[in-house]
Amino acid sequence: MTGPASATLPDGFAVRLDPACLRLGPRHLLGGSPTRLLTLSSAAVGLIDGTGTVTVSDAASAGLARRLLDSGVANPVPVAHGSTGEITVVVPVRDHQAGIDRLLGVLRGVPVVVVDDGSTVPIRVPDDPAVRLVRLAQNRGPAHARNRGAALVDTELVAFLDADTVPRPGWAALLSGRFADPAVAVAAPRIVGLANAPWTRPVARYAGLHSSLDLGPCARDARPGSPIAYVPSAAMLCRRRAFEAVGGFDPNLRVAEDVDLCWRLVGAGWTVRYDPAARVAHDHRTTVRALLNRRRYYGTGAAELARRHGTHAAPVVTAIPSALAAICVLSGTRTGAAGAAVTYAWMFARLRSRLDGVPHAGAAAGRLVGRAAWFGVHQGFAAMLRHYWPAAAAAALLSRRFRRRLLIAAVVEPVLSWVSAVRREPDAPHPDPVTWAVLHRLDDLAYGFGVWQGAVRCREFGALRPAITR
């Protein structure tokens, strides 16, 4: 048994309905990922206060809070644990003395295990009883290094921080509060750019707003197929018992080891939480070459994930009606537009029927169809320009009509991405839309190249196959 021994929430634990959750009358909640409809009893409705919060005080409130959490329609109310005495930090490092010096300066007084993963020039640490140094004779990769460090930890919680990170004040206290839920195995912060980054560089501005490590401002559970599928190992806090129960990181993986760990934990019944209230800064790549090489490298891990986790690693996850409608829209023809309209009308009627008896059923069905339409078309554009760009480029050479569609997608998609990023972080430095569009396209090309590179090398093409759901 590798899952949690208990899932019962303690008294005082509180959850609050997610802002994206729709309340359809007093007894119905629509939300989560995948989207689901929850019907509450009259007693359960009485446990939700005016702010959408449920505070655990007995078995009934504990059961309701757990149901809301597991359905993805609610998130834990942030509460700082107030103590970091049960945490040991493990830092894998290779050839980054400056990063270690900077990080240890921030972690003074906290137990730290530094694992030198075969550095060319051996890493040095200060003469501090709280800091332990482990040297590996040869480079085995960050997964192996983290496991070696974690094996020396005896505290309840173990934090993994990369040498190019700098935790913000209060990060550990905020994250440790998440472990009041006995089902939580991992809590992870939001990873943001360093305050002293060279923001005058367009690449630095792009990386600061479009980092693959920054999972955004919304707290969520990380699980396959959801908006947040995993949390990065550059900064995460783990329940040591859960980490050991699933065997830690897979030492055979040099990339995507964090995705693999999260999915194995979720598969074993544990919860992985993302909490953007806690923040850790990261020294992002600020040159085009470094940024694109890192994106390509991340892409190479998709094939191994597909081999281990099947359709969880699929680049596109869609239901047949949504796929048909998106294809019709992307065709750009009158026939396609008519086909999309018919398909969306059928989807609306089907959802409206399933919501029969629920207040505001028509409005809810319309909202769900609109969301599905937007997501389906956007997912199609993104996949065509990212995972499938070699095939899309070949098709563009053969078809003038497709070439025009591809060009429109290549321009419109990054502009929408730029608008979304600026609205999300209006005070952050950001590049102009043209620079953003160019870097965004190069970013996708690099990642997609890495996916194909990994697939060919591993002879595993699951990361390029769409997953069709009901």
Automatic annotation (TrEMBL):
A Gene Ontology molecular function term of the record: transferase activity
UniProt keyword annotation of Transferase present: yes
One Pfam family per UniProt: Glycos_transf_2
Domain Glycosyltransferase 2-like residue range list: 89-245
Source organism superkingdom: Bacteria
Sorted UniProt keywords: Transferase
Name of the molecule in the record: Mycofactocin system glycosyltransferase
